[in-house]
Automatic annotation (TrEMBL):
Superkingdom classification of source: Bacteria
SUPFAM superfamilies the UniProt entry points to: Pectin lyase-like
Identification of the protein by name: Pectate lyase
Listed Acidic residues bias regions: 453-468
Start-end of Polar residues biased regions: 508-521
Organism field: Novipirellula artificiosorum
GO molecular function terms noted in the UniProt entry: metal ion binding
Region listing for Disordered, in residue ranges: 428-521
Sorted UniProt keywords: Glycoprotein, Metal-binding
Length: 521
């Protein structure tokens, strides 16, 4: 039974109201239960060479978890005017978090100052109830932690006039249906710079995170997640000199692609225990210290999820590994070091098409770069949602060109790190591994600029509305969809697209980030 068939059946049942969706779940689960392939349990499907068969139908519990993930992906896409089935959060959104609606169709809230809280602040926008799209009338550094507390939010950092937004603190995701784009999180104290657990339908795009003394970017034990085009860099040390970790990743149905991970000692990333289905492609890792990535045990002790996720299945495909000055000689060729806590705790891994700079033998045989024996080889990858995949070498170039908070413009921190990766150098700390933000000069000053005139406060500047035949004094037209392609008018502005031109964004060839492929940069 294909995902497309499930989606069509789901929309048929749910078109007239979500109260009928329970019948769909019951019927589909009953159909799956009749399928003899359900008896194909992964634990009994080892091949004689120690590998596992394709994981199409691992077990009854996994089938139900997969079904739950699919329904989570589709729950906001049952087919109304502002959210037709399969339209992504924005053009260029890919993977398992791609179809969250975020704040689509909701209130537009403008951030007008860089205060840590209070009226006009980013925190106030995050505290608001209901679907909301957050735009910025100011650039600069927000001094303080920010917590997303309520569901259905889109944070559009690309709208900041001037040099963009940096959060000097932690950004916590404690809500469902979250879209975060084009901001920086450079913390000044303990705790993950960016993190969240036990939530669903999240996409983080073009975010730069750094300087945490816990993990820089830890998003795990969630459902339906995409982390794409981000920079996770320069982890700092705890008071005792320990840590400097990139992050913990691992979510039930998750995609990670075209991210740059650089200048972290370890956890690049650490795969969470019991992390479910995770697909990691076209990422670039540079200058890890004593560990690239590890983890991926099958079981999480004290798992709070209901039902618990009792397996880890990890694709690591077409990524680029570039050791740097801080990379210890015994781990320069290490793609991953899978972990377990004993028999029955092995995760399932498929590792292929990765490029390890300076180690042609590992590039030719990726399994020689997977250390230890505490894992099960998958003969082929689990069948993840596709992305616009490149070769590892092509992704290296594209990631350096486009990753991180590149709009409105890259700051001096990201610009320096990109050049260090490109040149194979490190200019601060102990060969690029730092202890505090002061080692690299701290937070750069961000200039603001005058925001474009928006008379009706609908998130669309007057000049843009006039250009495309909208009413600059009619705020309600921001949630309309002038061209009927699934993106509201204000989203067309945020996405750098034409609100008068219908484009079928459900076609892969049209699902391209216009902001990174235009004169916007």
């Amino acid at each position: 039974m294909s995902n497309r068939f499930i989606a069509l059946e789901y929309r048929e049942y749910c078109h007239d109201g979500r109260e009928t969706c329970g019948a769909f779940v019951d019927n589909l689960a009953r159909d799956l239960a009749r399928d003899p392939l359900l008896n194909h349990n992964l634990s009994n499907s080892r091949q004689t060479d120690g590998t596992a068969n394709d994981m199409k139908f691992p077990s009854t519990s996994t089938i139900l978890l997969t079904l739950g993930g699919l329904l989570g992906l589709l729950s906001g896409a049952a087919g109304d005017e502002t959210n037709p089935a399969n339209v992504t959060a924005f053009p260029g959104a890919e993977g398992y978090g791609a179809v969250t609606p975020g704040g689509r169709g909701g209130e537009v809230i403008a951030v007008t100052n860089t205060n840590g809280s209070g009226p006009g602040s980013l925190q106030a926008a995050c505290n608001a109830q209901g679907p909301r799209i957050v735009v910025f009338k100011v650039s600069g550094t927000i001094d303080g932690d920010v917590k997303i507390k309520n569901d259905f939010i889109t944070i559009a950092g690309q709208t900041a006039p001037g040099d963009g937004i940096t959060i000097k603190g932690n950004l916590a995701i404690d809500a469902n249906d979250v879209v975060i784009r084009y901001i920086r999180v450079r913390t000044d104290h303990d705790g993950d710079a960016l993190g969240g657990r036990y939530r669903k339908n999240i996409i983080v795009d073009h975010v730069s995170a750094s300087w945490s003394s816990d993990e820089v970017f830890s998003l795990y034990h969630n459902e339906n997640v995409t982390i794409q085009w981000c920079m996770i860099t320069e982890a700092c040390a705890k008071a005792d000199g320990s840590h400097r970790f990139g992050g913990i990743w691992g979510n039930q149905h998750a995609t990670y692609h075209h991210n740059l991970i650089a200048h972290n000692d370890s956890r690049n990333p650490r795969w969470a225990s019991g992390c479910g289905y995770n697909d990691y492609r076209n990422n670039l890792l540079y200058n890890w210290g004593y560990q690239s990535c590890y983890g991926g045990e099958a079981h999480q002790k004290g798992d709070r999820r209901k039902p618990p996720i009792e397996f880890s299945a990890i694709n690591m495909i077409a990524n680029y590994y570039k050791p740097g000055p801080a990379t210890r000689s015994d781990v320069k060729d290490c793609i991953a070091s899978p972990s377990s806590r004993g028999d029955g705790d092995y995760g399932d891994w498929h590792v292929a098409d990765n490029y390890v700079d300076g180690f042609p033998e590992v590039t030719a045989d990726n399994w020689s770069g997977v250390k230890g024996k505490s894992f099960t080889k998958l003969a082929s990858p689990w069948q993840a949602l596709p992305i616009h995949q490149q070769s590892a070498q092509a992704a290296y170039t594209t990631v350096l060109e486009q990753s991180g908070c590149s709009l409105p413009k890259r700051d001096s921190i990201d610009t320096r790190i990109i050049e260090e990766v490109r040149n194979g150098t490190a200019t601060h700390g102990n060969n690029g591994i730092i202890t505090t933000p002061e080692d690299v000069g701290g937070w750069p000053e961000l200039r603001s600029a005058e925001a474009p005139l928006d008379s009706d406060g609908d998130g669309m500047p007057d000049d843009w509305e006039t250009e495309f035949g909208l009413d600059a004094n009619q705020a309600e037209d921001n949630s309309s969809d002038k061209d009927g392609d699934g993106f509201t008018n204000v989203e067309e502005y945020l996405n750098g697209t034409d609100p008068t031109e219908f484009i079928d964004y459900t076609k892969s060839e049209n699902n391209i980030n216009s902001l990174e492929n235009s004169d916007a940069k």
